[in-house]
Here is the input.
Amino acid sequence: MVAVLEKQNLRDFDWQTAVLAIAIAVFGVWQIYNALPSESYWTKQIIGIGIALVAFVIVSFADYRRLIDLAPLFYIFGLILLLLVLTPLGVQVNGQKAWVRLPIIGQFQPSEFVKFPTVLMLAKYFSTNKGLLSFRQMAVGTAIFAGPVVLIMLEPDAGQALTYLPILAAMFFLSGIKMRYVVGAAVLAAVMIPTAWFVGVKTGTIKRYQQERILAIIDPDSVDPRGFGYHTIQSTITVGKGGLSGIQGDTETSQSVLKFLPEPHTDFIFAVTAENSGFIGCVSLLLAYAILLSRMIAGARESSDRAGMLVIMSIVCGMVFQIFMNVGMALGILPVIGVPLPLMSAGLSAILSTFVAIGFVVSVKLRRFVN
Here is the structure.
């Protein structure tokens, strides 16, 4: 088996996927620099990419089946990290206590990184299933999913918790969920969402700023353009300013450089991309994402076992959701909930988690002929 694997390592390492992911990340560094050229976020992102690439190589050449076997340990370690956030070691930023300060690494957001251990744990559990899922299996899977999500909601970080939902949905769908459960969930959601909104508004559970973020999408004229509607309005102005080919780094007229656009290096990095590289740059970026995701899906098809396929497809669904949410935020068609754009938004946690996930895909491809 070792001899076969060595041949595969030399012949079948997925350089195209690796180079494409690195290219998107480097493009992201350029946009972070365009957003805040006078600050050090872009240099920190380069360091973060370096750390992420080391992790990518380690995971790529590791046996992915061994990683899945160790999923319970990774999962428990992830929960411990999330618990640390809720202790005095947690760091509060913009009203959210979602970070923890670690030695050497510095400020780190566990909720982003813990997605991968959660995916591994769910895949380990569901990979042994044969036939359609029973209610008990769905309940156990939901309990595994709820562990990190509940802790993230306590931070509170509803936006980050929301990004875990596509992972569970993908696991259920690919493991064989009964149609009556799908219909039941859809009917329940159709009833509960408006009911929860009405009750939440009446009781004050849904805070005023949360209401304003929704109203900024539904009825932009009803919100204060200098208050909770500011983010959405400034983002759409920034996107429109880019035109066909962008402002080409003109700092004198840049919305982000002049501090009109909030959080340009993280939540609104797509708006910065639109401003600086225009429609052409945005379409090119989305095309690059499409190619990267298609290669990851190909890796799922080539997987020699069910667990590898489940992990990859859950990762793909999670990335698609984040791309959709972040771009929607920037275009003003979705509420601002703080979802990073994969490989583009500044932050060690996000870039590390994404490269580790892509490394897993490469590991699966390397071992598709090994039993």
The mean pLDDT is 86. The radius of gyration is 21 Å. Residues 269-302 form the longest helix (34 residues). Residues 2-83+111-366 form one domain.
